[in-house]
Design goal:
Layout: H1 3-21, H2 41-44, E1 56-64, E2 72-83, E3 87-98, E4 103-119, E5 122-137, E6 171-185, E7 189-196, E8 202-207, E9 210-217, E10 221-228, E11 230-233, E12 242-253, E13 256-267, E14 270-278, E15 283-294, E16 297-306, E17 317-325
Antiparallel strand pairs: 1-2, 1-17, 2-3, 3-4, 4-5, 5-6, 6-7, 7-10, 8-9, 10-12, 11-12, 12-13, 13-14, 14-15, 15-16, 16-17
Length: 344
Amino acid sequence: MDKSLDFWKVFRLNLWFLLFIVSNLSLFGQDPVFTQYFNAQLYLNPAFAGNTIGPHIQAGYRHQWPLLPTLYTTFHISYDQSVKERAGMGMSILNDNAGLGTLQNTGVLGYYSYKIRIKNDIYIKGGINVGINYLSFNADKLTFGDGIDPNNGPLSAGGTPLPTAENIISTAEKYLSIGSGFLLYNPRYYIGLSAHNLNSPEIFQVSTSGLGNSGSMIPIRWNFHAGYQHNFVEGNKTSFPSFLSPSILYIDQGRFKQLNIGAILSVNSFQIGGFYRHTFKNSDAVIGLVGFQKHFLKITYSFDYTVSDLSISQGGSHELGLNFNFDYLYPKKTNYNDCFQIFR
């Protein structure tokens, strides 16, 4: 294969990424989005803190557009459990890596929730989260047209990057992030609303005319989510329940809007599911999901088949979710009286 063709393909893709993050217009930050939002419950809504009696750990890894030479990955891990009878606490770490480290965001957040019984088996639960994010931009990862030799590419004969006249420098900063949310639920259905980046944190702006902080703010991310759980077979200490759980998620953040709708069928230890995602401008993806649960561990894999103009030629998106539920350490069977089984 002609190496020059490979080089220009990589260069075009790097330029495509650059157009996303570098312009003379203000930038609008957007939070990462998980297909398996039920395996990132604290990221979805802080009111989910304390969703189990025992320790509960969730972890997830998302690899988007794997056939591109530039890497787009997101990783999260969280811990939470109930405190006494009505409260819950937790913490999470999330890292979002765009363009092989060109733009990275790492956040560490803490969570607290409290539930109140309204009537009979109807409850309302509220939660808050507060944390620090570290945002970094590495200009050394970028390649510009004036830094490319027609014969040798972006490197000199000695192997060092060629200079560019573009006035873009690397930078990094920390910012505070605050969020809140609530859940209304009973054993059959739930309705939730959460708001993240309530303080609209101000972040640096990158442009071809330089680097500065000119009031670019991360918009509030609104999550509306609802679901229903129909149990076919109730679970016990030795077996998992069998149920069907349809759900819907709507995300609104600045100019970005997204709707996910689908369902998960769980039979004993196995789960299968299907979802459809739309961005209101175009269809985005059809999603397939499979999962397996054994004792305290649940593993879930999903694949986003891209149906937008981007097409499946970029490889779609892969996502792996892990759930560690240590309720079995508690001798007494827990009756949660809710419909949050897919989150556990």
